[in-house]
Amino acid sequence: MLSMKNISKVFKTDLVETHALRDFNLEVEEGEFVAVTGPSGSGKTTFLNIAGLLEGFTSGEFSLDGVNVSNLNDNLSAKVRNEKIGFIFQGFNLIPDLNLAENVEVPLRYRGFNRAERQRRVESALEQVGLAARMKHLPTQLSGGQQQRVAIARALAGEPRFLLADEPTGNLDSLMARQVMELLENINQTGTTIIMVTHDAELARRAQRNIQIVDGQVCDFSMYQKADQSLVSDLTQAAGLQKAASSDC
Amino acid sequence: MFLYYCDLAWRSIKKTPMLSMLMVLAISIGIGITITTLNVYKTMSYNPAGERSDNINSIQLWSQGLDTWDDFQSNITYTDVINLRNNNELGLKAATFRTGLAMQSDDPNIDPILESVRVTDSDFFSIFDVPFLYGNAWDKTVDSQPAYQVVIGEKLNQTFFDGQNSVGKTIYLNRKPYQIVGVIKEWNPQPKYYDPLNGAFNDAEEIFIPFLLAEQEEFDVWGNTSGWKFEPMLTYQDRLNSEKTWLQFWTFLENEDQKSQLESWLSRYVEQQRNFGRFTDTAKTPAESFQISNIELWLENNDVVPEDNKVLVGLSVLFLSVCLVNILGLLLTKFLKRAPEVGVRRAIGASRAQIFSQYMVEVGIIGFIGGIVGLLWAWGALSMLHAEFNMKESVTGLDASMWIITPLIAISTAIIAGIYPAWVVCRTKPSVYLKAQ
């Protein structure tokens, strides 16, 4: 479904080279719910940007849904993003001038759906997140949790195969965060593959698989879990996620 | 998508009303000034002859002496006019000049008026396709056997005869009775191309009388009386025979063959005149000593559009360029402010081309509004020129084509100004803004 092999991403300036990802390998199966954790600066967001075709990479191979997407031009990247990927961001990233229905409609516009189809999908998506009654409201009239639900509705409206979530609960209180997480779990149960970057150990534990990125590389806990419990503990301490590691591994 | 982009553009304009207003103002002022000068230029450079422009030809002759004038005179001397009139090879031909006569009718209640009069041949009406309301031009025989006949204009007919058919009635010109043979419909070509030397934007005459009456009645020739040598002129005939009485001579050439025939006739004519002691500038060959000008060339040679006007158009375009640079700065500010939104749109499926199109539609709409406001500025400026500086209405009237040209120029200007900001914003990396938001 999603396959990254030896992906490297190097940010270069005149003075320094920063390796955001190095020999990054990851396979995600269809329908999986994967949580990605790791300390700040470890490369989580870079990974998510590459996975979402928002950024290119320096070397390696990346295929999505069986198609090599390493060298897509801008139009094709946009098309893949629009048709196969849904994004959920920490800051919601709703367009403030547009009401909820219009926000959800944006990706459908770029997809070229007719008015009736757009309306059907918008209503269905907003219903799914429990905000169908507030279609005409502006994002500023909603709470943070509600805004994030609108963002999820926007991501769902295009019926994507992947949902990429970057700290989807980062700006929410625990109650709201739980609600959003439940929503994501429900979506995952319908067959949508979800990759979620989070700092929240509790949320990470609820995912089917937990991947930790440290210094731009994947540390697969399931492997270490079987091999050496103490090594896992050391690694998680180094990553500053002692709590998450102790509960996971 | 276009309508969607229009909707987004309108929201964006409403969201930043001050910035949008500044841009509209910048475009509209630039457009207003450009359109004002362009309108005056366009009206002045209009060719009223239309499709007949190549057929209607004026003749110029290099009759001046050595080391005198550097260019052809627009008109030719009375002597040459008479000789050309007698050239039977020519089809339609008309000598013409402007004079002024006192006019009165049989109605004692109407005071005499001094009227501008066109003295010409009957072919004048056919050459210039003058439309008739009543009657017609005088008979061709009157061009060789003068008769006191007159063609008057519709306005004059309205004033003196209440708009009734006045053919057969009499008017008095310098107390001489003239019988009306025709009334022409409203006809006022602008520029007045058949005689631009007497005011290219003056109104057409309302009275037309036979050319041969000039010699008989000793009409003054209004217009050019320049000379290049001393000539004693004691009598009216002396003046006509001199090299100082300049008239227009027009002919209608159906095709190139007729033009070639006229050219060879004129070559022979120059040689003949040299034998008579005229056309003394032998530095020019006979073939170089004449010029046949169609209307386009004629208008150009007579500087109907003054050079100043062209400079003004150039300056106004420069001013528009300054406005364009200002708009570019404002657009860059406005668009970059919305880069985070672009990031979101890019992330959820918009291509660079779609973002670019969205912003180009927005600048197009700003340009369109600027164009409409600019058109109002231009209309105001032209009205002011007409009211305050007594400029002719024919020059200061807003040309119908400007209603199309103005929005097009305004939209094009805005689009040119918007290309760089839209390109910059569509090139922004979405990932930079998604996290930052």
**Separation of the first and last Cα atoms of chain A:** 26 Å
N-to-C order of helices and strands of chain B: HHEEHEEHEEHEEEHHEHEHHHHHHH
Order of helices and strands of chain A: EEEHEEHEHHHEHEHEEHHH
Distance between the termini of chain B: 26 Å
CATH-level-2 architecture of chain A: 3-Layer(aba) Sandwich
Side by side, the strands of the main sheet of chain B go 3-4-9-6-8-7
**What would you give as the CATH superfamily of chain A?**
P-loop containing nucleotide triphosphate hydrolases
Low-confidence runs of at least 5 consecutive residues of chain B: none
Using only C-alpha atoms, the radius of gyration of chain B works out to: 30 Å
Give an account of the 3D structure:
The complex is a heterodimer of chains A (249) and B (437). Chain A is an alpha/beta fold. Chain A has helices spanning 44-51, 74-84, 100-111, 115-128, 144-157, 174-189, 201-206, 221-227, 229-239, 242-248, and strands at 2-12, 17-28, 33-37, 59-64, 67-68, 85-88, 162-166, 193-197, 209-214, 217-220. Chain A has one domain: Rossmann fold (3-Layer(aba) Sandwich). Chain A contains ten helices and ten strands. In chain A, helix 3 packs across helix 4 (115-128). The model of chain A is unreliable at 242-249 (pLDDT under 50). Chain B has 437 residues and is of the alpha+beta class. Chain B folds into two domains: 2-45 and 306-436, no CATH class; 52-301, no CATH class. Chain B is 49% helix and 16% strand. Chain B has helices spanning 2-15, 17-44, 78-85, 123-127, 154-161, 213-217, 236-241, 256-275, 295-301, 307-337, 339-347, 352-388, 393-396, 402-426, 430-436; strands at residues 56-61, 76-77, 92-105, 113-120, 132-135, 149-153, 170-173, 176-184, 207-210, 246-252, 290-294. In chain B, strands 3-4-9-6-8-7 form a six-stranded mixed β-barrel. In chain B, strand 3 and strand 4 form a beta hairpin. Chain B is elongated, with a radius of gyration of 30 Å. The chains are: A alpha/beta (249), B alpha+beta (437). Chain A binds chain B through residues 45, 49, 52, 54-55, 74-75, 78-79, 81-83, 86-87, 89-95, 97, 106-107, 109-111, 154-155, 158, 166, and chain B through 1, 4, 11-12, 15, 340-341, 343-354, 429-431, 434-435, 437.
